[in-house]
C-alpha cells in the first residue's frame, strides 16, 4: 500500500459488484463527498482507488488494489467479501440501516401470521375452490423460535412477544431479551429446536452456520413446524427441506434468500407445495443511507476516528 494521504475531498472509489448495480449510489456519494471520483471494476481507475464499495466482489480483486484503505459492504452482510481468502488486511465496514429492523420485523411478523393464522392453507384451498375454516389458535399456543439475537433478531423477538406469542431464541453467545426464553451455544441448539412450531433464521453467515439448517436439525423441529428463512441462503440445505416437506414432518416454509440468486426458474422450490418463495425482499437498505454511512466512515478514517459498524473478521460480522 502506498503512503498517499487520504483526503475526503478527493477520495477515489471503486465499485466492485455486478454491472450497473451501484449506479444509483454515484450521485449520492458525490453529494456527500464533493470531489469524489468513481470507477467500476476492472477499469484502471478502479484498481488505483482508495475505497472499495462492494457486493460480491470478484475473487482476488481487492488484493490487486495497491492504494486500498477501506473496504465497505453495501449491506449488513459481509460474507460475500470475507469468502475471498486474498482480501487484504484493511478495515471492513458494513451497513446498519435503522429502518432494516423495522422492515425485517414486518417480514417476520407477516410470515409468522401466514402460518399461525393458516393463510398458507387458505391460499392452497382457494386455488382448488375449497371452502374450509381452521380452528384459531391463541398466539401463546404457538412457539416461535428465532435463530440469532443480533439487532434484527432482537427487534423481531420483542415484537412477537408484544403480540402474545411464546418466543424462544438461540444465539452463539448468551443474551437476554425480556419475555424471551433464550439459550446459547452448540450444546443447547437441539433442545431449542425441539420446542419450536415456527423457526425464524436471522443468523449471520459464517463458516459455522453454512448448512446449519440440514436434515438433522430441521427434523428436530416439532412435527408440522414451519421455517422462515430471511438471513442467508447458504444456511439451508434445500434438498433436505424438500424431503422433510414431502414426508410430512414439516408443514411449509417462507424462503426469502437462496444460495444462488436470483433463484433459477426451474428450481424445484418454486413448485414445492407448502413453500413460498420471495425475491430477497425482507429488508433492503436505502441507497441514501448507504451513501451517508460510507461517507461518514471515509471522514472518520481521514480523522483517525473509530469506524462505524466495523467488522470483526474472526466473528465474521
Query: Beta-strand percentage?
Result: 15-25%
**Number of helical runs?**
10
The main sheet comes to: 7 strands, parallel
Main sheet strand line-up: 8-7-6-9-10-11-12
Order of helices and strands: EHEHEEHEHHEHEEHEHEHEEH
Mean pLDDT: 95
Query: Unreliable segments (pLDDT under 50, ≥5 consecutive)?
Result: none
**What structural category do the secondary elements indicate?**
alpha/beta
Shape: elongated
DSSP, total strands: 12
The first-to-last residue Cα distance is 25 Å
Q: State the helicity in percent bands.
A: 25-40%
Radius of gyration: 22 Å
Defining key terms:
317 residues, alpha/beta, 5-stranded parallel β-sheet
Polypeptide structure, described:
With 317 residues, the chain is α/β, with parallel strands linked by helices. The chain contains ten helices and twelve strands. It has helices at residues 25-32, 44-47, 79-82, 98-116, 119-127, 151-162, 189-193, 215-218, 238-246, 287-303; strands spanning 12-16, 37-40, 51-54, 70-73, 92-93, 143-147, 166-171, 181-184, 198-201, 225-229, 250-255, 275-277. The strands form two sheets. The protein has a seven-stranded parallel beta sheet with strand order 8-7-6-9-10-11-12. It has a five-stranded parallel beta sheet with strand order 2-1-3-4-5. Strand 4 (70-73), helix 3 and strand 5 form a beta-alpha-beta unit. Helix 1 (25-32) runs parallel beside helix 10 (287-303) and helix 4 (98-116) packs across helix 6. The longest helix is centred in the middle third of the chain and has 19 residues, at 98-116. The radius of gyration is 22 Å and the shape is elongated. The model has no long low-confidence stretch (mean pLDDT 95).
Amino acid at each position: 500500500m502506498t503512503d498517499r494521504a487520504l483526503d475526503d475531498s478527493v477520495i477515489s472509489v471503486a465499485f466492485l459488484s455486478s454491472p450497473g448495480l451501484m449506479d444509483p449510489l454515484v450521485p449520492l456519494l458525490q453529494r456527500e463527498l464533493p470531489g469524489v471520483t468513481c470507477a467500476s471494476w476492472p477499469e484502471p481507475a478502479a484498481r488505483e482507488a482508495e475505497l472499495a464499495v462492494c457486493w460480491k466482489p470478484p475473487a482476488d480483486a481487492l488484493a490487486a488494489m495497491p492504494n486500498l484503505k477501506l473496504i465497505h459492504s453495501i449491506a449488513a452482510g459481509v460474507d460475500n467479501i470475507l469468502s475471498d481468502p486474498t482480501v487484504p488486511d484493511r478495515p471492513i465496514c458494513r451497513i446498519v440501516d435503522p429502518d432494516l429492523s423495522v422492515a425485517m420485523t414486518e417480514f417476520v411478523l407477516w410470515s409468522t401470521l401466514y402460518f399461525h393464522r393458516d393463510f398458507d392453507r387458505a391460499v392452497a384451498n382457494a386455488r382448488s375452490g375449497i371452502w374450509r375454516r381452521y380452528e384459531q389458535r391463541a398466539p401463546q399456543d404457538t412457539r416461535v423460535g428465532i435463530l440469532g439475537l443480533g439487532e434484527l433478531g432482537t427487534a423481531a423477538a420483542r415484537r412477537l412477544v408484544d403480540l402474545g406469542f411464546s418466543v424462544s431464541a438461540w444465539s452463539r453467545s448468551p443474551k437476554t431479551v425480556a419475555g424471551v426464553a433464550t439459550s446459547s451455544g452448540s450444546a443447547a441448539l437441539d433442545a431449542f429446536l425441539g420446542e419450536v412450531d415456527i423457526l425464524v433464521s436471522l443468523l449471520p453467515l459464517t463458516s459455522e452456520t453454512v448448512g446449519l439448517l440440514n436434515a438433522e436439525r430441521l427434523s428436530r423441529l416439532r412435527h408440522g413446524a414451519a421455517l422462515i428463512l430471511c438471513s442467508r441462503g447458504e444456511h439451508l440445505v434445500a434438498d433436505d427441506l424438500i424431503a422433510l416437506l414431502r414426508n410430512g414432518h414439516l408443514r411449509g416454509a417462507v424462503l426469502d434468500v437462496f444460495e444462488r440468486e436470483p433463484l433459477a426458474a426451474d428450481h424445484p422450490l418454486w413448485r414445492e407445495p407448502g413453500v413460498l418463495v420471495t425475491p430477497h425482499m425482507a429488508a433492503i437498505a436505502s441507497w441514501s443511507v448507504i451513501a451517508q454511512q460510507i461517507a461518514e466512515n471515509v471522514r472518520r478514517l481521514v480523522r483517525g476516528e473509530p469506524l462505524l459498524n466495523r467488522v470483526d473478521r474472526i466473528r465474521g460480522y
